[in-house]
């Protein structure tokens, strides 16, 4: 293989259609019963064989580390350690997923790096091993490999695909400032001291997804971290109220926030709502869901 070969993998953002959070376990992580859906905002990650690990962005993005702290480098090191190999790569990330927005952008980069390096070096890592390595990197990373719609249990790392016959449009309202996931979970513990030990699996949401009923999905959207995120970011309340007034099928905080989403059944309604928001100076974009998980787009 010539050293200039590279592989580009595209990995999606996620939303949690349902995020049920329990009280913290002895290891500090929270048990979850969540339904992930991959949505059409993407990071593209290109990996090339190199003498040392490095990471670059195609355009500067505030808040993304460009050293060993980048989760993509951690993913590469975890994969080579798994195989007992002394290899390294140059990793170039084209970020389309908001940073620290609760849409698992870093997790997408980790998943893309695992898949890209596996293909670049023809490591033939089994799916089970890739998912296991992904789970050691972060709770949301296994889902970024799987994509579509999936039930997440454990601390979010155990993913089981579920039938989803919906095809909806998310109006994604971007925030200029991120929110720290650990800080939101810490505040959740303060305001929800009686959270369950095992949060229940949301059966009605699973039925609505299987039925392809976007209106019912919109009614059932739920996120236990929402009150904690609202406390930490009171400015979200006004945007949330405005989104509700545009009469979408439902409104949701993405994961630990601060990205807010409105679900529309029709793309034309979503476009009208996006244009109205843009006129008010609020940054937003549209994303379809569900979409595929991490996948190779280029061998060059
Ligand atoms: C909010 C969600 O995005 C919902 O899917 C995830 O739970 C967060 O997933 P993530 O960003 O991949 O999180 P990780 O990198 O695994 O953990 C970051 C930090 O979030 C908190 N954390 C995360 C997941 C979890 N089930 N319980 C937690 O308390 C912990 O403080 C942890 O140290
Ligand atoms: N490749 C990466 N892209 C973005 N952030 C990264 C990356 N690697 C490390 N980080 C660090 O991780 C933090 C969280 O980034 P990320 O964009 O994944 O947040 P998030 O979308 O809120 O995550 P989640 O939804 O999984 O909780 C960033 O503030 C940054 O310090």
From TrEMBL:
Pathway noted in the entry: Isoprenoid biosynthesis; isopentenyl diphosphate biosynthesis via DXP pathway; isopentenyl diphosphate from 1-deoxy-D-xylulose 5-phosphate: step 3/6
Keyword Kinase: yes
Record-annotated active site: 14, 140
Molecular-function GO term, any one: 4-(cytidine 5'-diphospho)-2-C-methyl-D-erythritol kinase activity
GO biological process, one term: isopentenyl diphosphate biosynthetic process, methylerythritol 4-phosphate pathway
SUPFAM superfamilies registered for this protein in UniProt: GHMP Kinase, C-terminal domain, Ribosomal protein S5 domain 2-like
Protein name: 4-diphosphocytidyl-2-C-methyl-D-erythritol kinase
Organism of provenance: Nocardioides caeni
Protein encoded by which gene: ispE
């Amino acid at each position: 293989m010539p050293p200039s070969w590279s592989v580009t993998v595209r990995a999606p953002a996620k939303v949690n259609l349902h995020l049920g959070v329990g009280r913290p376990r002895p290891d500090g992580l929270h048990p979850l019963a969540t339904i992930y859906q991959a949505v059409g905002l993407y990071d593209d990650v290109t990996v090339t064989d190199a003498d040392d690990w490095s990471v670059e962005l195609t355009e500067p993005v505030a808040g993304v580390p460009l050293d060993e702290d980048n989760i993509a480098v951690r993913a590469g090191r975890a994969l080579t350690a798994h195989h007992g190999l002394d290899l390294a790569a140059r990793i170039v990330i084209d970020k389309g997923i908001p940073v620290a927005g609760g849409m698992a952008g870093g997790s997408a980069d980790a998943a893309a790096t695992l898949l890209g390096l596996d293909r670049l070096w023809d490591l033939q890592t089994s799916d089970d091993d890739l998912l296991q390595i992904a789970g050691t990197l972060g709770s949301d990373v296994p889902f970024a490999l799987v994509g579509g719609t999936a039930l997440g249990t454990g601390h979010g790392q155990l993913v089981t695909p579920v039938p989803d016959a919906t095809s909806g449009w998310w109006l994604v309202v971007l925030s200029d400032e991120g929110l720290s996931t650990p800080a939101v979970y810490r505040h959740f513990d303060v305001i929800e001291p009686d959270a369950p030990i095992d949060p229940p699996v949301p059966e009605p949401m699973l039925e609505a997804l299987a039925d392809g009923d976007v209106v019912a999905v919109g009614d059932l959207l739920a996120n236990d971290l929402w009150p904690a995120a609202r406390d930490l970011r009171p400015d979200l309340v006004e945007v949330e109220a405005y989104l509700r007034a545009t009469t979408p099928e439902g409104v949701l905080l993405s994961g630990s926030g601060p990205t807010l989403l409105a679900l529309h059944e029709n793309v034309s309604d979503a476009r009208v709502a996006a244009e109205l928001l843009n006129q008010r100076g609020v940054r937003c974009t549209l994303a379809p869901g569900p979409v595929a998980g991490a996948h190779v787009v280029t061998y060059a």
